Amino acid sequence: MIFLLNTGERRQACVSLRVEEVDFDRKVIRRQRKFDKVESIPISDYAAAFLKSIRPQARGGWFFPNRAGTGHISAEYLLQKFRKLCMKKKVLLPSGKPPCIHSLRHTWASVLELQGIPLSTIQRLLGHSSIKTTLKYVHGDASKSREACNLASAVTAVGLGCARAEQ
């Protein structure tokens, strides 16, 4: 979840990340995105440090190997872990259910927007071909972006340059 929140990657892209796809010197992930496009995706210093910290545990070339070491964990397994974490930390929607794991991607985009990153840059980082798709991810209302940032902090306890709301 830390990696998802710090990169905006899709869950399948996250669980299937291979060691050879990460260039730690340039701090980029070089991989095939949707529609067979190969891109260099920049990652933050924090995301690179996180990947370096888990690299010794990588088996079979996967950053997130399954228990047998024969492949990567499933996206469904990651989703189950996310839901359990949200329930444990009481990060719930008004309906009482945990948020969808894809909300971390929206949160990442909203935090970037809140920090003043241009929409065209957010679009490229998300891998969207249309700015209209990116506009669905960012929440132009600063209060919504702040809520997204608080969700991010609550789920991962990773500092994103914003304070958690006082309870």
Polypeptide structure, described:
The protein is mainly alpha-helical. It has one domain: hpI Integrase, Chain A, CATH 1.10.443. Helix content is 47%, strand content 7%. It has eight helices and three strands, in the order ααβββαααααα. It has helices at 2-7, 11-15, 45-54, 75-89, 103-114, 119-126, 131-137, 142-156, and strands at residues 22-23, 28-32, 38-42. It has a three-stranded antiparallel sheet, with no helix packed on it. A hairpin with a 5-residue loop joins strand 2 (28-32) and strand 3. Helix 5 crosses helix 8. The radius of gyration is 16 Å and the shape is globular. The model is unreliable at 158-167 (pLDDT under 50).
The residue-averaged pLDDT reads 83
Cα gyration radius (Å): 16 Å
Amino-to-carboxy terminus distance = 23 Å
User: Could you tell me the strand content as a percent range?
Assistant: 5-15%
Q: What are the low-pLDDT stretches, counting only 5+ consecutive residues below 50?
A: 158-167
What is the name of the CATH topology? hpI Integrase, Chain A
Number of distinct helices: 8
The topology string of helices and strands comes to HHEEEHHHHHH
Report the top-level CATH class.
Mainly Alpha
Secondary structure class reads mainly alpha
Largest sheet: 3 strands, antiparallel
Spatial sequence of strands, sheet with the most strands: 1-2-3
Corresponding CATH architecture: Orthogonal Bundle
Query: How many domains would you count in the coordinates?
Result: 1
Shape call: globular
The name of the CATH superfamily reads Intergrase catalytic core
Percent helix range = 40-55%
Question: What is the β-strand count?
Answer: 3
